[in-house]
Amino acid sequence: MRIVIVQFMTLDGVVQAPGGAEEDTDGGFTHGGWSHPFFDPEVAGGAFDGAMANAEALLFGRRTWQTMASAWPGRAGDPFADKMNAISKYVVSETVGDDKLTWNTTRIPGAEAVARIRELREADGGDLVVMGSAALARTLLSEGLFDELRLVIMPVIVGGGKTIFPDTGVLHTLKLVSTITSDAGVRACIYQRVSEG
Prior knowledge:
This protein is of the alpha/beta class and 197 residues long.
């Protein structure tokens, strides 16, 4: 399976709380909801729609999974929501008990995450899509466990917050394969990892 990471991102690389003021206030973050003024269904929405085209399963960190699992089941009735609800999901967590799993989800214990995700990546099948989940995305980038980045870059700077980019000195070369710019200045970019060697 290919691992595809999809993120809303500010110009300064922040991915924290794009959807709302209370979504993630860790570290005193006060700019939640920064994506709203720039969101459009064609470019921003299309990036997520495109990522779902070959998706076989979704992969989340605990916080993002809890937010999504509480929101999406109530949105049934449109094609995107129906696919989100039907597709298999994985959540990386040490704290969510198996008895609390809903929304067609399998738990991957945090201590086993890298090994289990590596196994998923080596299996045949469609894409394993990561939406949000900043800490998980950062781990995947650091470990080289990704094949494609789909970044929806909004024309806003928030001056600090969570990012997906590791600060461990790891080097990965990417190839820009597609970019679309909206009238509001949102740039949806698809980068594929260039094979080393």
